[in-house]
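Translate sequence into structure tokens.
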Amino acid sequence: MLAVSWPPSCPPWPPSSPAPGPSSPSTSTSACGPAPGPRHLLVAGRLWIVAMVGLSLAWLPVVEAARGGQLFDYIQAIASYLAPPVAAVFFLAVFVPRVNEPGAFWGLLGGLGLGLARLVPEFALGTGTCGSPGRCPPLVCGLHYLHFAALLFLATGLIVVVVSLCYPPIPRQHLHRLVFSLRHSREPRIDLDRQPPKDGAGGVQLQDVEAEPAGQGVEPVGQEAGSAGAGGGAEPPAPPPEDAVWSRVVDVNALILMAVAVFLWGYFA
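Result follows.
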């Protein structure tokens, strides 16, 4: 699988520029131009918001033609075609420790493809109304969009699980307090993106050790490296346990929200 980073990073420019010193000001430049400042980012963000508002206003005729001007149905239909893959990946990542990155990646791609297979024909051909049926084939658009969302959730979950089983699992040391089964774990968690020390002495480099005269408290190199590796490479302590009262409050609120969401989903379906 090819790893593609976006946005693409620009190489430093010029390639052999000297490090900034006291007499030369520090300027961040790249081959794409100078690094944007706060004012530039602020103006770009405001212009992007104005462009999105204009696009939203221009999209109103499409909403009216898609589902007879019923904005709620339009919003729910779009969410039913695009949101279930993300929800399925998040749900499995929390409750199934066996899920890994390739499974999540291909699950999102597969779910997005299935959602677009329903979204594009429906908006291109139209679903129609009771008086004038649309041109979209019943095999594609005949199923209600909320029922399609449930099937898309299950299909995405199946893709995630199957692909994850084809790749090695994530080590347990990286999952403490990140998955539901290890939520009460007190062991320290090691980040996945943490880079191991490049040298074999626990990250200690010889040029960082100042030379001292013999007999003035100089520790042997082996002991110093061992103490630095034990102290510098030690994991942070585990967080304190959560309050039982607030834990129950959060659980009750989550159950209430889930009950309301299920009721609304069943009522409008």
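Note: Strands lie at 29-30, 33-34.
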